[in-house]
Amino acid sequence: MTTATTGYPVHVHARLDPGLSRWLWLVKWFLAIPHYLVLAFLWLGFAVFSVVAFFAILFTGRYPRALFDFNVGVLRWSWRVAYYTYGALATDRYPPFSLGAEPDYPATLDIAYPEHLSRGLVLVKWWLLAIPHYLIVGFFVGGGSYVAYETGQTVYNSGGGLVGLMAFFAGVALLFTGRYPKGLFDFVLGMDRWALRVAAYAGLMTDTYPPFRFDTGGDEPGSTTIEQSPPPPAEHRGWTTGRVISVVLGALLLLTGGAIGGTGGFGLWADSTQRDAAGFLSTGAESFRGTGYALEFGTLELRWTDADWVLADDWLGEVRLKADNGVFIGIGRTDDVTRYLSGVEHDEVSMAESRVSYLHRDGGAPADPAAQTFWAASGTGEVTWRAEQGSWTAVVLNSNRSQVVETRLVAQAQVPALRPVSIGLIIGGSVMLLLGLVLMLVAALTAGQSRRNGTTTSVT
User: Fold this and answer.
1) pLDDT per residue over 385-415, tens digit each?
2) Domain segments of the chain as ranges
3) For position 155, what pLDDT does the model report?
4) CA distance linking residue 109 with residue 104, whole number of Å
5) pLDDT, tens digit, for every residue of 151-174?
6) How is domain 280-413 classified at the CATH fold level?
């Protein structure tokens, strides 16, 4: 027989290790990097399983046990890492790579499994009802190492906010005195415990509303203990390393497939609804103003393939530049344009992150642009060009070759490949989504079956 804590269903316990290193806390951020990398993937699985659990609770009133065990395991793992690092700095014992309870570790977390959860409450508790707690926890923890995530709502703790500040003070005290102030430890644990209770509530693991109570110290004040049967042996808990890896891979496939499929869907939407009467897709109009005789628009590198592929030159189709005034627009190979503008006062235009910048080049007046024969396409106010492989540069000049070139340009392209590429992305993304879902569901189902078998075996 063993003992278990009663009271609130989220049980957070911790003990302050004696003889903590004076300096180790300075490098724990580095030592914990392997955990951070693993947890980043585990939280993908946590997020997906939380969404699945949301619908399971909504329709059945139950949180699937295998999913519950996994998500509790992720919270346990995250809590141990936070306790080791800047969520407490209260142990020098390296956290185990485990989803299990690990009762011998100085920081433990247990959440009582709910046999039934409210179908209606699941719709509002993770966002509306928890708002007051989110405000408090946001002040406590500020950002990143344990998270409760459900349909977009996130609660974090990683040594940010007041927790991180208090842990830093504890680290300074260790550095100079070799002791962790007991009062500071109790205060930090109170904030961590509050945050973990909210994390479990937001993660749909309990219907019991978190108390507005600051329970300090390593043990929860006012708790009692009851006798219960020992937990099933570790080998019967279901979540083996292979199944955890399947969940991680499945979550990655879901995330990647969703991004790829979403990109394809956006492309298909643009192809169907955003073309003008002539079949062109357009960018927004952008204003440009240069003090020289010409505006030179960088270099456009078009490289589809080194081989002669009949579809390659149809990738962009026709490209069109339109100006709101009667400026001369020319598109030519970069080498030819460079020779033409050599010795001409002009402005080189570059755009980065939607910001336009200009590099002014001194010189004289240009030769008549309309008389040049190297242009692949040219015109007044508008130019249409069939995209080809190579290095290309667009140039804008006043038709009378005067200084100060000012205009608003719109770039357009047919992009005939957009529809087939978008359809391909949707198909590929859907396959990845389906594969990821299958991997995660198979892992969860086999974990649940293994757990039931294990429990039966232990009872027998």
Assistant:
1) 988 888 999 999 999 999 999 999 999 999 9
2) 2-231, 250-271+420-459, 280-413
3) 42
4) 12
5) 333 444 445 689 999 999 999 999
6) Jelly Rolls (2.60.120)
